């Protein structure tokens, strides 16, 4: 008995799935169906009903929608049969006759009846004369809406020359070269960082800051406006804004180090230590973070030792924060830059750490990575 | 051949009837909105820039709905009259005329539309059975 029941249920589910994606039941048609329900409820009210069951109203509106569809289909067929693309009043009346032929109408059996003289048309005229004029309850806009194609997205729209003959001009424009060219230059310069030149490091930092800030601002702007326009001026303004407002400053990239001095209470540090024992792995964006974490491995070591030293009698706790720049859709807002100040003495520390980077063991690096993750996860609620 | 003079006059009359008819269509505002009808006609491939044809379809649809609804109303009233014969107090209580699936399916059956409605839904095949005979 149970097996039979299960079999029936599966069949029912299958049949339900098959009947669901009909063209009158799809998600895109919900609006039209809702309007139809309102209209039909109004007609029922005019006939004399004071209420109706939900299922009855839905069924009736579904049937009416199919009625309109079949009238249109038949009329179109008749027009095509006569060699026309556009339908005529005669096509429509013939379509209505076809749909009403199940019930029958007077004169349906006449072989020489004229469509213009059809009973159907007369019935409709009588109906118009008898029935009250009840307009639809709501103001219905034209649907479906037709969105205008934004011409400015394409290269051709922007008036730029495509940077190669193989690239057609109707493709969207390339992003600003700063956003991807800077990365290449950084790749070349990581080898020179280990030489320990402070000025060179600072120059690289500033260049990366600028490019990342531009990219960040650009994404924020595109998210708001959806278009790209004068880019240089905005970047300049953004730079000025970043100098005045620390929250608008560029996020850190690998090779950079900013130390934040903030009056954080000790319980945060203690919770860090507690969290250290139970590392929480993070799932998202591991690819982007791993490289950053590896570079910060010496930083983490220095930090944890530093924390213990500054423990007693100090209200300020120095700790390092790193900001990961995430491109894409995430639950947190991208480009959050916590409060930080750059100090010259820290640059020396950074340089020294990068010198030791190559000597680290893999195991140590992993341990420090976990440490870093746990500290970050515990500090999440304090960030923006 | 005898039909010809008559039919030509008849054709003129018919044409004028039709054009009058289409003109009168524009005076009447059907309850079913034009945009809805246009949407579904466009879906079916019906192409016509003439608004009067869309009104024609809308009015025809409204007539169809009115017919189905009035048939269902008659069924509903007949049922209420049959019940009232048994109990007099139902007359005061059941003044409300409600469109039910039952009445609707009966009236639609005459128009060639078969609407079958589930009587009830059960959780499992053994719902409502005696606990002694139920399979565990």
UniProtKB/TrEMBL annotation, chain A:
<feature type="domain" description="Bromodomain associated">
    <location>
        <begin position="29"/>
        <end position="105"/>
    </location>
</feature>
<feature type="region of interest" description="Disordered">
    <location>
        <begin position="356"/>
        <end position="384"/>
    </location>
</feature>
<dbReference type="InterPro" id="IPR006565">
    <property type="entry name" value="BTP"/>
</dbReference>
<dbReference type="Pfam" id="PF10406">
    <property type="entry name" value="TAF8_C"/>
</dbReference>
<keyword id="KW-0805">Transcription regulation</keyword>
<keyword id="KW-0804">Transcription</keyword>
<dbReference type="InterPro" id="IPR009072">
    <property type="entry name" value="Histone-fold"/>
</dbReference>
<dbReference type="GO" id="GO:0005669">
    <property type="term" value="C:transcription factor TFIID complex"/>
</dbReference>
<feature type="region of interest" description="Disordered">
    <location>
        <begin position="1"/>
        <end position="26"/>
    </location>
</feature>
<dbReference type="Pfam" id="PF07524">
    <property type="entry name" value="Bromo_TP"/>
</dbReference>
<keyword id="KW-0539">Nucleus</keyword>
<dbReference type="InterPro" id="IPR037818">
    <property type="entry name" value="TAF8"/>
</dbReference>
<protein>
    <recommendedName>
        <fullName>Transcription initiation factor TFIID subunit 8</fullName>
    </recommendedName>
</protein>
<feature type="compositionally biased region" description="Basic and acidic residues">
    <location>
        <begin position="356"/>
        <end position="375"/>
    </location>
</feature>
<dbReference type="InterPro" id="IPR019473">
    <property type="entry name" value="TFIID_su8_C"/>
</dbReference>
<dbReference type="GO" id="GO:0046982">
    <property type="term" value="F:protein heterodimerization activity"/>
</dbReference>
<comment type="similarity">
    <text>Belongs to the TAF8 family.</text>
</comment>
<feature type="compositionally biased region" description="Basic and acidic residues">
    <location>
        <begin position="1"/>
        <end position="16"/>
    </location>
</feature>
Automatic annotation (TrEMBL), chain B:
<keyword id="KW-0539">Nucleus</keyword>
<keyword id="KW-0804">Transcription</keyword>
<dbReference type="GO" id="GO:0016251">
    <property type="term" value="F:RNA polymerase II general transcription initiation factor activity"/>
</dbReference>
<dbReference type="GO" id="GO:0006367">
    <property type="term" value="P:transcription initiation at RNA polymerase II promoter"/>
</dbReference>
<dbReference type="GO" id="GO:0005669">
    <property type="term" value="C:transcription factor TFIID complex"/>
</dbReference>
<dbReference type="GO" id="GO:0000124">
    <property type="term" value="C:SAGA complex"/>
</dbReference>
<dbReference type="InterPro" id="IPR003923">
    <property type="entry name" value="TAF10"/>
</dbReference>
<dbReference type="GO" id="GO:1990841">
    <property type="term" value="F:promoter-specific chromatin binding"/>
</dbReference>
<dbReference type="Pfam" id="PF03540">
    <property type="entry name" value="TAF10"/>
</dbReference>
<keyword id="KW-0805">Transcription regulation</keyword>
<comment type="function">
    <text>TAFs are components of the transcription factor IID (TFIID) complex that is essential for mediating regulation of RNA polymerase transcription.</text>
</comment>
<comment type="similarity">
    <text>Belongs to the TAF10 family.</text>
</comment>
<protein>
    <recommendedName>
        <fullName>Transcription initiation factor TFIID subunit 10</fullName>
    </recommendedName>
</protein>
């Amino acid at each position: 008995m149970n097996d039979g029941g299960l079999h029936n249920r599966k069949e029912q589910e299958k049949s339900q799935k098959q009947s669901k994606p009909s063209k009158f039941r799809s998600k895109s048609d919900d609006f039209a169906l809702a309007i139809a329900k309102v209209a039909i409820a109004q007609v029922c009210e005019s006939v004399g009903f004071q209420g109706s069951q939900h299922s009855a109203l839905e069924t009736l509106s579904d049937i009416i929608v199919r009625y309109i569809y079949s009238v249109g289909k038949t009329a179109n067929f008749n027009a095509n049969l006569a060699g026309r693309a556009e339908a005529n009043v005669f096509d429509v009346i013939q379509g209505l006759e076809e749909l009403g032929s199940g019930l029958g109408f007077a004169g349906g059996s006449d072989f020489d009846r004229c469509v213009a003289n059809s009973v159907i048309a007369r019935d409709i005229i009588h109906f118009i004369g008898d029935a009250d004029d009840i307009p639809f309850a709501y103001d219905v806009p034209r649907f479906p809406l037709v969105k205008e194609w934004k011409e400015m997205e394409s290269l051709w729209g922007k008036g730029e020359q495509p940077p190669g003959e193989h690239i057609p001009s109707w493709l969207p424009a390339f992003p600003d070269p700063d956003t991807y060219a800077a990365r290449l230059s950084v790749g070349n310069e990581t080898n020179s960082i280990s030489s320990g030149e402070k000025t060179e490091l600072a120059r690289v930092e500033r260049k990366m800051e600028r490019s990342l800030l531009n990219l960040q601002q650009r994404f924020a702007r595109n998210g708001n406006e959806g278009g790209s326009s004068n880019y240089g001026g905005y970047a300049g303004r953004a730079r000025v804004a970043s100098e005045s407002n620390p929250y608008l400053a560029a996020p850190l990239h690998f090779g950079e180090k900013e130390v934040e001095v903030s009056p954080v209470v000790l319980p945060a540090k203690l919770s860090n230590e507690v969290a250290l024992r139970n590392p929480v792995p993070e799932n998202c964006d591991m690819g982007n973070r791993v490289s950053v974490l590896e570079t910060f491995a010496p930083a983490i070591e220095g930090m944890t030792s530093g924390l213990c030293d500054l423990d007693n009698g100090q209200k300020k706790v120095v700790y390092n924060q790193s900001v990961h720049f995430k491109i894409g859709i995430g639950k947190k807002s991208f480009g959050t830059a916590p409060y930080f100040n750059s100090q010259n003495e820290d640059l020396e520390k950074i340089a020294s750490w990068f010198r030791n980077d190559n000597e680290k063991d893999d195991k140590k690096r992993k341990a420090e990575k976990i440490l870093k993750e746990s500290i970050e996860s515990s500090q999440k609620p304090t960030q923006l | 051949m005898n039909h010809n003079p008559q039919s030509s006059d008849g054709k003129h009359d018919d044409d004028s009837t039709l054009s009058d008819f289409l003109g009168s269509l524009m005076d009447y505002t059907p309850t079913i909105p034009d945009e809805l009808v246009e949407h579904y006609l466009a879906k079916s491939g019906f192409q016509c820039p003439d608004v009067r044809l869309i009104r024609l379809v809308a009015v025809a649809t409204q007539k169809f709905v009115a017919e189905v609804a009035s048939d269902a109303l008659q069924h509903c009233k007949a049922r209420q009259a049959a019940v009232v014969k048994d109990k007099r107090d139902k007359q005061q209580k059941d003044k409300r005329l409600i469109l039910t699936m039952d009445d609707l399916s009966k009236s639609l059956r005459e128009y060639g539309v078969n609407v079958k409605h589930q009587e009830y839904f059960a959780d499992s095949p053994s719902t409502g059975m005696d606990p002694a005979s139920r399979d565990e």
